[in-house]
Design brief:
Structural class: mainly alpha
Low-confidence stretches: 1-30
Distance between the termini: 24 Å
Radius of gyration: 21 Å
Length: about 450
Amino acid sequence: MTLPFTGSIPIPPATGAIRTLGPNPATAPIVLHPGDAISSRRRLLYVLLLGALTALGPFTVDLYLPAFPLLQRDFATDEAAIQLTLTGTMIGFAFGQLLVGPLSDTVGRRGPLLVATALHVVASITAAVAPNLALLGVARVAMGFGAAAGAVAAMAIVRDLFGGRRLVVMLARLALVTGVAPVVAPLIGSALLGVMPWEGIFWVLAGYGAVMLAAAVFGIPETLPRARRQERGASTVWQRYRSVLSDRVYVGVLIIGGMTFAGLFSYLSASPFLFQESYGFDEIQYGLLFAANSIGLVIGNQVASRLAARFGPQWVLAGSTAVLVIAATLIVVFDQLGLGLWGTAIPLWFFMSACGFTFPCAQVLALDRHGKAAGTAASLLGASNAGIAGLVSPIVGAVAGPEGITGTSMAVVMIGCALVAVAMLWLVVRPRTVEMLNP
C-alpha cells in the first residue's frame, strides 16, 4: 500500500490501525493514528508552522497592550473604553472560531484558514489607519475574527493526525511554541513603541498575517479526507455541535478552560494600568514583567504533558485549579497587607503557571473524545475561552471604580473565575469517572 500525498506531508488513511512502510510491510509496526507514520523531523516542522499560526492570535491580543496608556491619551478617553477594544478582539475571536470550526469539518481545513487569515491582514491595515476609536474597535473585532482560523485549524489538524498520549505530547509542544508569543509580544510591542507610534504595531501585525497566509498556502496540507467530511450523524453543523455538547466531560472542560482563560485575561486587561500607573513601570519594565509571568505559563504547559500522560489530565486539573484559587486569594491578602509590587507579582507568577498546567489538559480531554468533529470541538473550546474572557475583562474596571485598578480589584475577578472552574471539575467532569488516555 502506498500513502497518498496531501500537500507536502504524507497523510495515511485515517481509518483504523495501519502498518507503516518498510522492507517487510507484514512485520512493520502498527500505527493507530495517521501522524504516527510522519517522521520526527516533519512533526517538528509541522509543530513550528502550526504554532506560528496559532500565535497570530496571542500576538493580535498582546502586542498592543503596552500602548494602552497611549491610546487612552490620543483618543482622550478612559480606561474602560480602551479595554473595550480588547473585549471586541476577543468577541471577534470567539465568533470566528464558532464559524471556522464546523466549516473546517465540512469543507476541510485549508479553505477557511486561508480566507480568515487574509481578513486579518486587511483588518490590521484598517486598525493602523483608523482615525477614531470607533473604527479601531471595529477593526479589532475583525482582527480577532481573522486570527481565529489559525487557532482552530492548528488544534483540528493535530487531532486529525494524532490521538491518545501522543496527542498530549503534540498539544504540549504546540503550546510551547505558542507560549513564546505572550512572552515576546509585550517586549516587541514596547520596543516598537520606542521607534514608532502605536499605529506601527498594527502594520507589524499586518505583515505577520501576510507571512502566515503565505506559509499556509505553501506549507499546510489538507489533513481531513473527503470521506470524513460527511460521515453519518455528523454531516450538519447542528449534528456536530450536538455530538460534542451532549458529552458531560466535554461541557465541563469547556467551562473550566473558559473560566481559566477569563482569570488570565483579567490580568491581561488590568496589568498595563496596574503596573505602569500604580507601580510606575515604563514600557520596557512592563514587558519584562509580562515575559517573566509568561515563562511560568510555558513551564506549566510542558510539565503538564508529562504528568497528564502518566496520571491522567483530569488529575492534573484537580491540582492546577486549586492553585488558581490559592494564588489569586494570596494577591488580595498581600495587597490588603500593603506588601506592594512583590506581594502581587509572586502569587501572580504561580497563577500563570497554574494556567499553563490547565490549558493543555482541558484541550486533551476535549479533543481526544471527539476526533470525528475535531474542528467543532476545537472551535467551541476556543470560542468559550475568548467569549467568556471578553465578557469578564471589563468587570475588573467596574470593580475598581474611580479609584483605579489595584491588585485587589484584579484578583477578586480571578478568584471568582477560579472557583467556577473548581466547581465544574468536581461537579460536572467528576475526575473519578474519566477513563485514562489510550496509547
